[in-house]
Amino acid sequence: MRLVFSMIIGYLLGTISPSAFLAKIKKKNLREEGTQNLGATNTMLTLGTGYGALVLFFDIAKVHIIFIMSMCIIKIICK
After folding, report:
1. Percent helix, percent strand, percent coil in the chain, to nearest 5
2. How far apart are CA 55 and CA 23, in angstroms?
3. Can you count the helices (H) and strands (E) in the chain?
4. Within 10 A of 12 (CB to CB), how many other CB atoms are there?
5. 24-54 burial string, b = 16+ CB within 10 Å, else e?
6. pTM here?
7. Which among 20, 24, 42, 79 is least buried, having the fewest CB atoms inside 10 angstroms?
């Protein structure tokens, strides 16, 4: 049960796209500009280096959050 819960949380967090949020704020469509990909590289090319770095930071942070939550749920780190 914990494993299933961990997988669902990981999936839901993984679907969050910081580049889509930034593009919406800046009123740009990243799927029509640059490499047409919602990622840090296209965000950097289209919106600027600072925004690309911000997207990269949040993408890496998502992985760490998912990993820590998974470890806590299966009680390897948190007892």
Report:
1. 70, 0, 30
2. 11
3. 4, 0
4. 10
5. eeeebebeeebeeebbbebbbbbbeeebbeb
6. 0.79
7. 79
